[in-house]
Amino acid sequence: MTKQAVNIVVDIASQRLLLRRGDQVVGEFPISTAKNGAGQQQGSECTPLGRHQIRAMIGAQAPLNSVFVARRATGEIYSSVLAAEHPGRDWILTRILWLSGLEPGLNRFGSVDTMQRYIYIHGTPESEPMGEPLSHGCVRMRNHDLIELFDQIEVGTEVVIVEQLERD
């Protein structure tokens, strides 16, 4: 019996992330994509479309609500007190799935390169709403959902980001 490929679909319209094994959806999670909508351009703070892959998985052993800056754990654990000390900070928590584009000219190379834009799937504070686009370009998830996803994928897993998923 062959092992079925696992992939991820990010549906911007529904603000949902689907984990698929073959043609079967094995996980579905609420997310928050970019407040500025879909787009590829460096500096746009938009969520990039197209085919990507997980380039790196960061934070495998980090505690829940660990704070990351520049893909490194700071040693801090997110709390309302820490949030009050750093208003306006775009919190990257718990785990990071760093994306790399697979489509030259669309999301790879030049001013549209997803990896060089530092686009991640990452955890966010529980106080941040899911189901509405509010990020600076990344895909935000609930921390427990992200850990569940993280444990089922590997580096190289394909991630397809679409404006709206066509449903059967």
TrEMBL record:
<feature type="domain" description="L,D-TPase catalytic">
    <location>
        <begin position="6"/>
        <end position="162"/>
    </location>
</feature>
<dbReference type="GO" id="GO:0016757">
    <property type="term" value="F:glycosyltransferase activity"/>
</dbReference>
<comment type="pathway">
    <text>Cell wall biogenesis; peptidoglycan biosynthesis.</text>
</comment>
<dbReference type="GO" id="GO:0018104">
    <property type="term" value="P:peptidoglycan-protein cross-linking"/>
</dbReference>
<feature type="active site" description="Proton donor/acceptor">
    <location>
        <position position="122"/>
    </location>
</feature>
<protein>
    <submittedName>
        <fullName>L,D-transpeptidase</fullName>
    </submittedName>
</protein>
<dbReference type="GO" id="GO:0008360">
    <property type="term" value="P:regulation of cell shape"/>
</dbReference>
<dbReference type="InterPro" id="IPR005490">
    <property type="entry name" value="LD_TPept_cat_dom"/>
</dbReference>
<dbReference type="GO" id="GO:0071972">
    <property type="term" value="F:peptidoglycan L,D-transpeptidase activity"/>
</dbReference>
<keyword id="KW-0961">Cell wall biogenesis/degradation</keyword>
<dbReference type="InterPro" id="IPR038063">
    <property type="entry name" value="Transpep_catalytic_dom"/>
</dbReference>
<keyword id="KW-0808">Transferase</keyword>
<dbReference type="GO" id="GO:0005576">
    <property type="term" value="C:extracellular region"/>
</dbReference>
<feature type="active site" description="Nucleophile">
    <location>
        <position position="138"/>
    </location>
</feature>
<keyword id="KW-0328">Glycosyltransferase</keyword>
<dbReference type="InterPro" id="IPR050979">
    <property type="entry name" value="LD-transpeptidase"/>
</dbReference>
<keyword id="KW-0378">Hydrolase</keyword>
<keyword id="KW-0133">Cell shape</keyword>
<keyword id="KW-0573">Peptidoglycan synthesis</keyword>
<comment type="similarity">
    <text>Belongs to the YkuD family.</text>
</comment>
<dbReference type="GO" id="GO:0071555">
    <property type="term" value="P:cell wall organization"/>
</dbReference>
<dbReference type="Pfam" id="PF03734">
    <property type="entry name" value="YkuD"/>
</dbReference>
